[in-house]
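Hi D.,

Good news: the full-assembly prediction came through. Inputs first.
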Amino acid sequence: MSIWEYANPVKFMRTSGAILPWVVAGAAVCTVTGLTWGFLTPEDYRQGSTVKIVFLHVPAAMMAINIWVMMLVASLIWLIRRHHVSALAAKAAAPIGAVMTVIGLITGAVWGQPMWGTWWEWDPRLTSFLILLLFYIGYMALWSAVEDPDSAADLTGVLCLVGSVFALLSRYAVFFWNQGLHQGASLSVQSGERMSAVYRYPLYLTMLGFGLLFLSLLLIRTRTEIRKRRLAALQAREMRT
Amino acid sequence: MIALLRRDLRLAIRAGGGFGLGVAFFLILCALVPFGVGPDTAALQPIAPGILWLGALLACLLSLDRIFALDHEDGSLDLLATSPLPLEGAVAIKALAHWITTGLPLIVAAPLFGILLHLPGAAVPALLASLLLGTPALSMLGAFGAAVTVGLRRGGLLLSLLVLPLYIPTLIFGTEMIRRGQEGGDTGTPLLFLAGITAGVLAVIPFAAAAALRVNLR
Amino acid sequence: MTLLAVQDLAVARGGLRTVEGVSFALDAGQALILRGPNGIGKTTLLRAVAGLQPPVAGRIEMADDAVAYAAHADGLKGALTVTENLAFWAQIFGGGDVAGAIAAMDLTGLAHRPAAALSAGQKRRLGLARLMVARRPLWVLDEPTVSLDAASVARFAAMVRGHLAQGGAALIATHIDLGLDAGVLDLTPYRARADSTARPAGFNEAFA
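Then the structure:
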């Protein structure tokens, strides 16, 4: 029994089909509970009710980065071990990651308006998210432009590797370019209590919810991609005979 | 390898436009900016480093798709891939040829166009140094983008979409260096960053670009 | 001496297997003509032998840097002259006698013309002359006689014969009778079976 067994499409379809309802249910429960709980928290003495957008903003921003990392790992698995499910999972993850990035940017703008008095600020964190969005767009555009599925998987895999390096590089270059207004990491471990427990626990719950939400969307989309590949293969077989 | 470089340079000269077009585009861009923002020195001077770098970047972008597209069409790329020359070396040489035909003329022209944008003379050394260190990375990253998109329909548009985000770090450190030069500040830090990025790009990207080319050839 | 040994080869185009189970060997001095209907995968097979695309299954055994490949595109630059084009490829392939190759394909009178001014047949001849300067033992040729007239075809056949006599080998996909003393391999029986076409690189067999 090894993890690579799930690289077999049939095995993947069977297992993912079995766990999908549970993941979806978990995502729904965690997200709804977390967001409701978050909405019922008291207002912050400085930020007022605007603080409540944190329960959307932080999980979305976190997932935006994590999804890219997941795509990087999946691309590496494809490039090294040639498991098709892995390549298709990376393809399936990209639009979800792009949407998470957009949610992070929009909620950030909505939050920034009352806090900083501007919808957009060329702050390092915001800017690096915008750059991340550009990388997501380029990655998806390349997938849709290449016709042969295996070539597309190879090219996007290489792009993902190079893009990761440059996304990281841009992130630090941007700090050099402009010191920002953005508050530091809200949940930083080493710098002690930044955020009171009243906000922290619902935030953990929404983060878990967004993680499960991503997982359920990823499974659904990967299953769709596998079925699409299967369908194309069947059609090609029919044309031959 | 030298033969490939000589052929590419000869083709650039004979086909015309190899050396001239990029610079002409650069000139037009620098001439249009004052129409957009007004002729005041106070308005132009602060944005001059950025305009010069953006102009260089866009002029570089214009000719990127030609790095591999023509060789792909006429079959030369297939033959190069079956030749004793490693494909990584061919990529590096073609990026070098692109830099000589596009980057080098831009560097020569940049101080002149800086005058148009009221760039103070004190910033010219920083301008030249930043372009000299930064543009090789632009050509190499461009070769990577061209390798990924060679043979694709609508490849040109996709190429800019893929390559421009990769240019961000170079652009940031390049303009920062000129800005510091303009203010008489310390240009050492951005210079080191710029050189570091270019060195890293030149060392690693040929392998990524050759891998992409092999995928596109099969 | 065996220059090329192909065992149980299968190739795919556009993610679909075209031919499978192809085996043959080429010794020094031998030529092999590939035949078969359009779309059977002659070009794909030749590209696999030339190392431009990986085979789906099977083995291709030969020495490194043994192949000179010529296909529909000749790899010529219109802005360069005939001699310059050929000299470039001679330098890249570490090779041979440019003037001799030009003479062999009867291009001497055109040696200083830019390649853009050549006719289709003349370009083809220049593309084939490149084989002589590449100095590779194994020629892999895809429809080499397209747009050649009868005299040029004879000239080309003589060139191939000379190459074979010097211990080279040639793998040629063509429908023309070149008058070579060559084996013929018809790919039709090797057409990929319907149930295996749909599994290009191990994705779908899991569903079977």
